[in-house]
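In the lab's daily routine, each protein ends up as an entry in a very long ledger. A line of letters takes care of the sequence, but it says nothing directly about the fold. The fold becomes a row of whole numbers, each drawn from a learned catalogue of backbone shapes. The protein below has been through that process, and both of its lines are reproduced in full:
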Amino acid sequence: MILQQSQVAAQVRTIILDLVAAVPSITAQTPAPALPPVEQRLQTLVEAMKTLAELTGGRLNPYMEQHFQDFAANLLAQHNRQALSSRQQKWMGVVNFAETELGKKVPLSGSHYRGHLGTWVRTFYPQLGERQEMRLVNGTQQPVYVYACHDPIVADGLTKAIEEFFAHPNPTVALRIAGAFSTKRPRVLVKK
């Protein structure tokens, strides 16, 4: 029995190594696949959820259940948004715009980090918009400012703001001087 298992394991290992060796030649020839339609992705998700529930006896991790629900809701929202709008709209956060549209790498820390880029745009370019959406940021839902990147004027303004931000030697100092970090709410004294 143990000998058979080790022979099977050796065969599986050989197959995997052959597949890994073939990956560079396969990826160089095939174009990137397109996602299937939303309806098909939703159907696949529902089937996967049913299978997973059967395998676990109906005891799924609550976080995983919530993840599936959020994913399905996002799929439906994306589908509805595309069906309802006559022209394609593209609402993006400033970091997402910088990375996908301009090819900038926005670091997680340092003087030119993600949070300061968003604060820079809100402080020096408030005319670009003030719409907020709840988005998943570092594992928690947070309000994120999103901008109408389908509008050429907004896209040009974001591009200018991002280029300015990265060209500045120390944006933290400029933001502090502009009062971006000052609190506008009166502090409330809490009695103990």
In short: Helices lie at 2-29, 38-55, 62-84, 94-100, 114-124, 152-167, 171-177.
